Amino acid sequence: MKAEQFAKLKTLLQRVQQNSVFYQNKFKEAGFDIDTIQDPSDIAYIPFTTKEELREAYPLNIQAVPDEEIIRIHSSSGTTGKPIIIPYTAKDVDDWAEIMRRCLIVAGVTAKDRVQVTPGYGLWTAGIGFQAGVERVGAMTIPMGPGNTEKQLQMMMDLESTAIIATSSYALLLAEEIHKHGLKEHIHLRKAILGSERWGEKMRTRISEELGVELYDIYGLTEIYGPGISISCSAGNGLHYWDDYLLFEIINPQTGQIVPDGEFGELVITTLTKEGAPLIRYRTRDITRFLTGECPCGMTHPRHDVILGRTDDMVKVKGVNIYPGQVDDVLKHVEGISSEYQIVLEREDGKDTLLLRFEQQPGFDGNNLEARVKRYFKTKVGLSINVQALSIGELPRSEKKTKRVIDNR
Predict the structure, then answer these.
(1) What CATH number is given to the structural domain containing 233?
(2) What is each CA distance from 23 to 16, 158, 248, in whole angstroms?
(3) For residue range 162-182, what is the model confidence (pLDDT) as tens digits?
(4) Does residue 99 belong to any structural domain of this protein?
(5) Are both 297 and 212 inside the same structural domain?
(6) What are 274-308's pLDDT values in tens digits?
(7) Residue 261 — φ and ψ, nearest 5°?
(8) Looking at the structure, do residues 159 and 298 belong to the same domain, yes or no?
(9) Which of the pair, 362 or 330, is modelled with greater confidence?
(10) Residue 325 in domain
(11) What is the pLDDT of residue 108?
């Protein structure tokens, strides 16, 4: 923790102690006194904030300023329970636009670009967050929102979009449609900024080659600001995050203890400057690690690795913990396999079974690929599985996020 981060943390603790009923109650229940924090190592005494607590605070019990200071709300989808509603002050919105501007500049977006924004608008943070950043850069925003692929492609050609913002799943769908209809010579894209879900090397390669673009991986979550928390750079070696706005820790998800630099764990974020709904030691459930040393791109902002998965994405099969990122790692080492895969879990005769379905590239023998994947998965993950090779396009595509794991147990 840098000295300026620690100073902001101390100010934040004083602010929530005075203004946030949520944190007043939380600290009281935990027996935590903010005066305990005398040096950076004392952060371990501060209790974590969890997603469950934010759901229990529905609708606006997380709010830490008077109503007249709130100018906007955003919300999580609420697909796994009550939605989490996050209120924003004018300063929060301004800060968010600034970190989005930084991300777009890292991706090489300039005022000369025409940026097609395909994520959703409304309560979801993505669409309006990206638009604010694009406008602050001075580029032309094309606020398409999600879906209607035919119109997306028509506008992309007619307006000569040079950059696209999307989920990786939707970028792949667009790339496949462009290839299918022979439109590549009419497409002017040079950049793609993709987020909202993790994606492996094979998907990255397909999108890059089929769209003819440089790819940038952007990270974020509604509870913090939205997208823009961090972004990959031209070196493609991890994601830089904005440590003047955010304090990152990485912990062992079982023990809650901070792990050594370079070791994978759960990302924990403190919002150092947020006003409407500040969060302290928020457990994101995302698995990553810090990357140390200087980045070849020359940026001095610290880096974290790509998101390996989520603690709640993990599935246990025959006593073995499996993350989708491990499946990506297996498949990227087998030539002849495309980017798309699906895991199907069943319970048969009292035992777990895992079927890994993947798409094969044309010209490769499916039986050979199945045998190689089965053998490699056993070696790398330590589990015997069933496999099924499919032709490209047989697995479902999505305009939002692709569902990789089907658990029928």
Answers:
(1) 3.40.50.12780
(2) 6, 51, 19
(3) 999 998 888 988 998 998 999
(4) yes
(5) yes
(6) 999 999 999 999 999 999 999 999 999 999 999 88
(7) -55, 135
(8) yes
(9) 362
(10) yes
(11) 97
Identity at 310, one-letter amino acid code: R
> What gap in Å lies between CA 137 and CA 146, rounded to an integer?
22
Final residue before a domain boundary, out of 260, 275, 310: 310
The reported pTM is: 0.81
Within a 13 Å sphere around the CA of 264, how many CA atoms are in the beta-carbon half? 13
* Sequence letter at residue 206: R
394: domain range? Answer: 315-407
- Asked if residues 251 and 258 have their Cβ atoms less than 8 Å apart, the reply is yes
Domain limit, last residue, from 264, 289, 310: 310
**Per-residue pLDDT band at 197 (split at 50, 70, 90):** low
Backbone angles phi, psi at 33, to 5 degrees: -115, 125
Considering its fold, how many domains does the chain have in total? Answer: 2
190 and 333 fall within a common domain:
no
Q: Is the dihedral of CA 325, 165, 304, 224 positive or negative?
A: negative
The pair of structure tokens assigned to 272 is 């150092």
Same domain, 163 and 233: yes
322 and 251 within one domain: no
- Residues in Cβ contact with 64 at an 8 Å cutoff, skipping those fewer than 6 apart: 15, 16, 19, 20, 22, 23, 275, 276, 277, 278
